[in-house]
Amino acid sequence: MKLWLKIFIVTLILFLAAFYAGIFFLSNIVYKTSLDNARAQAFAQHNFVANLLASNLAMILERERDMDKARDVAMDYYAKYYEKRGVRLELLPQKDVTVRGSLGGARVQEQLTPEFGRRQSLIVSQDGHMVIYVSGYMAGHFSDHILIYSQDITDIAQAQHALTNRLIFSGVIVTLLFLAVLYLLLNRLMKPVRVLQQTSEQIAAGAYDVRADIKGNDEIALLGLRFNSMADEILSRMDEERQNALAKQQFIDNLAHELRTPLTTIYGYAEFLQRAKASDDDRISATDHIMQQVQRMQALSAKLLELSITRRTDIDKEEIHLASCLERVCEMLLPSLGQEQVKLAISCGDQIVYGSEVLIEQLLINLLDNAVKASPKGGRISLKVFGEDAVVIEIADQGRGMAPQQIERIFEPFYRVDAARSRALGGAGLGLSLCKQIADVHNARIDVVSRVGEGTTVTLCFTTP
Amino acid sequence: MANILIVDDEKSINNLIANNLKLVGHTCVQIYDGSAALEAAAKQVFDLALLDIMLPKLTGFEVMERLTPTPVIFLTALDSLNDRIKGFDLGADDYIIKPFETLELLARVNAVLRRTKKNAETFEANGTTVSFRARTVCRDGESVDITPKEFDLLEALIMNRNIALSREKLLELAWGYDYFGETRTVDNHIQKLRVKLHWENIIKTVYKLGYRLEL
């Protein structure tokens, strides 16, 4: 069963129970009070009539001398008088208190026999009428007589009935109103839950960019907010995973492509050596080509191994004094700088970065090597180190530069800006991928700014020490 | 034989193709980038161009568009259907995907040359002339009696001359894929050809490999 329906039914049951219990309690009290009033009134009337009758009977008795006769005379008058007011009076000797006429039934008779000196009352419903009886002994000479006073009080019961009906009727109206208000209220309260439910269903069905639109600041709104941020997080993770998978797939595709050329060459020359009637020169050139391609594949596999090692290694962070590190890097680059007649200007303070010295050296060598390759003969490269907390290394050349769409891809494995030239120089297209990975494990950022024909500036920013 | 333009920026592959084409008697011009290919094509007429697609300066597709009416075979590592369709749309005569086998390359080159009628009509060696169109052989002006199968075998040897062909390969080339004969059949036919054409010295037996027509 749905939550709102549960709340609805439980609230409704509780409300109905409380409301109708209240109604019946109230109407009962009213009824009891009016009955008590009627009884008290009947007692007072009985008392009054008994006293009046007693004094009158005493007077009549002086004149008549006969008890029964005097009683009949008096009662003839009184009964008639009170009958007009809806009251019946009977005066009976104690010994034959029998309820006559409308006072039928042994039960009534028995219960209407009062103790001496006390009054007894009884309310009887019969034939749709309600009658109150009050009986009591007379005073004085007639103390062996009992006066029975009876009055029709059906109107009290009717009033009670009418009241109850009215209460029930108004109760039904109030209940209906309550139902409507409760329904609207629950509907309003449950709307965010419904929205959440629909949204989660949509997300489960694959619409990952759907978000729950919930306003307010109650717990459910908070839940919706958390739900949305959870969905965001999942989406971004999924994107990341997809990107990773894509990058891996691309890597494998590229690798397969990269292997195809040397393998074609090696197979082709081997076949040539085996089958062709070739001259000695041809044979030597064929074996040369085979050896070159094997070397190329060896270099490629070494680079790949390096990549995967860098990816896996948790580096030990040691202090690296950039000045001495750059000195060693320069030494290693000296031959290629000399060959290309490129000048390298270094400005470096006493900056320190933390990380693996071997990797940082490798990173700088790769970046500088690229700068040398891009530079024309006799070009200049400047390397500047600056910043205190966040150390920045900037390498700028005045070489050929790159177009924006090339810069986007330079960190992809096997991407070469100038495929033919790079391959001729023996590059595998993995250098910058390696740089990026080294930078990543050092929490450093690499930015590349370049203009075709003007040169390239690479900045390496160490964000955390 | 034919004059062929080879355009591939990978030097070793370019050389390999040239070596093999030269073996079977073609002349080759080796070019390493797209624009140089156009320059070379402007200077002389080629019977066929072998074009790589990923070339420096101009792509193979761009070269192809400006190279008409030279017949073109694309020779590339790009193996996607789109690239192949684009190649054929541009009017390429064939599309070979790297890595390729030498014999397949030669067969496809021959097929294109035959289609464009740029192939040699006759072949001559040791005083014996073979006419491919008429399927006849003359020795010293006299016609040599030769069976159709012997001619097929002779043609396979000539088309792949200076390259050793296994008996299985010769069966495939002369008799067809679906022929399940014994390799002894090849030996018998080779023997007959040697005698009929007086080619005992140029149809050589290559140890462990098969036969090679050497010139």
Lay out the secondary structure.
The complex is a heterodimer of chains A (465) and B (215).
Chain A: H1 3-64, H2 67-83, E1 87-93, H3 106-111, E2 119-126, E3 129-137, E4 145-152, H4 154-204, H5 219-275, H6 280-312, E5 318-321, H7 322-340, E6 343-347, E7 352-355, H8 357-374, E8 380-386, E9 392-397, H9 404-409, H10 419-424, H11 431-441, E10 444-451, E11 455-462
Helix pairs in contact in A: 1-2, 1-4, 4-5, 5-6, 6-11, 7-8, 8-11
Chain B: E1 3-7, H1 11-23, E2 27-31, H2 34-43, E3 48-51, H3 60-67, E4 72-76, H4 81-89, E5 94-97, H5 102-115, E6 122-125, E7 128-131, E8 136-139, E9 142-144, H6 148-159, H7 167-175, H8 183-197, E10 203-206, E11 210-213
Parallel strand pairs in B: 1-2, 1-3, 3-4, 4-5
Antiparallel strand pairs in B: 6-7, 7-8, 8-9, 10-11
Helix pairs in contact in B: 2-3, 6-7, 6-8, 7-8
Could you explain the architecture of this structure?
The complex is a heterodimer of chains A (about 475) and B (about 220). Chain A has eleven helices and eleven strands. With about 475 residues, chain A is α+β, with helices and mostly antiparallel strands. Chain A has three domains: about 5-165, 2-Layer Sandwich (Beta-Lactamase); about 210-310, Signal transduction histidine kinase, dimerisation/phosphotransfer (DHp) domain (Helix Hairpins, Orthogonal Bundle); about 315-460, Histidine kinase-like ATPase, C-terminal domain (Heat Shock Protein 90), CATH 3.30.565. In chain A, the strands form three sheets. Chain A has a five-stranded mixed sheet with strand order 6-8-9-11-10, with helices on one face. Chain A has a four-stranded antiparallel sheet with strand order 1-4-3-2. In chain A, strand 2 and strand 3 (about 130-135) form a beta hairpin. The radius of gyration of chain A is 57 Å and the shape is rod-shaped. The two termini of chain A are about 60 Å apart. The relative contact order of chain A is 0.06. Chain B is α/β, with parallel strands linked by helices and about 220 residues long. Chain B has helices at about 10-25, 35-45, 60-65, 80-90, 100-115, 150-160, 165-175, 185-195, and strands at about 5, 25-30, 50, 70-75, 95, 120-125, 130, 135-140, 140-145, 205, 210-215.
